[in-house]
Amino acid sequence: MNVHVKFLRLPNKILIFSLKGVIPGTAILLQALSTDLFEKATPQLTMKSLYSLARGNPVSALTTLAVLGLINTSGFAADKKLVVGFSQVGAESGWRTANTDSIKSEAAKRGIDLRFSDAQQKEENQIKAIRSFIAQGVDVIAFSPVVETGFEPVLQEAKKAGIPVVLSDRAVKVSDPSLYKCFLGSDFIEEGKRAGNEAIKLTDGKAGIAELVGTVGSAPAIDRAKGFREVIADHPDMKIILSQSGDFTRAKGKEVMEAFLKSPEAKQITLLFAHNDDMALGAIQAMEEAGIKPGQDIKIVSIDGVRGAFEAMKDGKLNVTVECNPLLGPQLFDIIEKVSKGESVPARVVTQEGVYEQAQAAEELPKRQY
Ligand code: AHR
Is the C or the N end of the chain the one with fewer CB within 10 Å? Predict the structure, then answer.
């Protein structure tokens, strides 16, 4: 007998959504049973009617037991692809491109139905995407929030719909921690501290600092600025004299650096702290166009560790990059798969990262994966 069964996945069990097939030994077409029917029927009735209809068909028999919650339904998951909605920040940097590739390729490797949406650095697009994932009834929602605040209502909607949420790369600020299952990503405060320590080493603790800040309101911009300041606070001659957002993009990094170099404070700048490599690479261009030697006249510390930064370090134009690992795909889908089965996961998973100085660039460059 050929029976088609559609399931409605809830966090811990699967309910029948519809069932279509011919009753064994008859020419009767059975179709369109819905969860509604099961809700109204008593378990005994449901079992009885399904059993007599299915007459020993293994699919239907298992389905009956699943409806009654008497078996672990993970056996069905093998037949059904896991559906994951992922809302990405955008395509603002080399880091982000590597992150997107890692997520897409890992989903493809695992046979996951990935519904991917690019928010183009706009929070409202991200909220719309999450609402659409809820309407589609995906199994799990994952996203990398553009900014920290403003997501609580939509996360409550996801919770109400019984769809678990996993945060990737960036965090959100919410009053109810049960609105997401896990946050996988870097410790951005630690990255800022590492950058601060490298800046102190490079300048012997005496610098006029220009800071290229990431996207305003984003977790990495807030935390990297915080970590950096915490570390330089003990060094009164480390002074931040200019600070402005370059939105994590190369074009904006260049534009803001041009403005810095035209400002009255320009002559005091001896060190640039860029919250990511892309902005540092844009700033390097601006410095060169202004006749300034990047990496020498102005020392540069940035964050990410993308290939372009290693090339710039090899050329002596960038001094240090603090690694921020974008290759989150494998870890992310390990977490998502566990969450989809109702298994417990840690609330926070921190990625392991290093720091690279100019002297290591030539050796490290061929090994870089992004
Ligand atoms: O959230 C991670 C940050 O976002 C990366 O440092 C930056 O390059 C990206 O745009």
Answer: N
The residue segments making up the domain with residue 301 are 188-324
pTM of the model: 0.81
Which of 52, 78, 104 corresponds to the end of one domain? 78
Question: Do both 198 and 320 map to the same domain?
Answer: yes
Domain identity same for 102 and 121: yes
Instruction: Determine whether the shortest distance from the Cβ of 303 to ligand 1 is under 6 A.
Output: yes
Q: Of 19-33, 127-141, 346-360, where does mean pLDDT reach its minimum? A: 19-33
Q: Is the domain of 94 the same as that of 153?
A: yes
Does 342 lie in the same domain as 259?
no
Which ranges constitute the DSSP H helices of the chain?
Answer: 35-40, 43-54, 58-67, 74-77, 94-109, 123-136, 152-160, 188-203, 219-232, 250-262, 277-289, 307-314, 329-340, 361-364
Q: Is 147 in the pocket of ligand 1 (CB under 6 A)?
A: no
- The CA 182 to ligand 1 mean position distance, Å, reads 19
How far does the centroid of ligand 1 lie from the alpha carbon of residue 322, in Å?
A: 12
Per-residue confidence (pLDDT) for residue 4, from 0 to 100: 53
pLDDT for 45-95, tens place per residue? 344 444 444 455 545 544 554 454 444 444 344 458 999 999 999 999 999
Are 255 and 234 within one domain? yes
